[in-house]
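Problem 12. The chain below contains 103 residues. Write out its predicted structure in token notation.
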Amino acid sequence: MTKKLAFLFLMMAILMIASPVYAQSGGAPASTNWGPIGIGIGMGLAAGLAGLGQGKVAASVAEALARNPGARPGIQLALFIGLAFIESLVLFTFVLLFIRTVK
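Solution.
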């Protein structure tokens, strides 16, 4: 495990040192507008990963209720709070992407 961790830190150091090599000079900005493509990819990732997270939460709740039906109120409360947090991340992403588009 320590070899993997050392390798990870080594790669992070190499990437941090190499990043100034790719810095742009003071030339004219690029003429292509990649904003809508990035917005589509960002929203797709946010919605897709949130859907996966919500599915995992629902599966865990179903398993927990099957094991202990008496704990339903506490499990149900945790379910609703968890789903609200997951959905709020998607809504935050949507708002930030919308703000980026308006600018």
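Discussion. Helices lie at 2-18, 35-67, 72-102. Students who got a different answer should revisit the alignment rule from Section 12.3.
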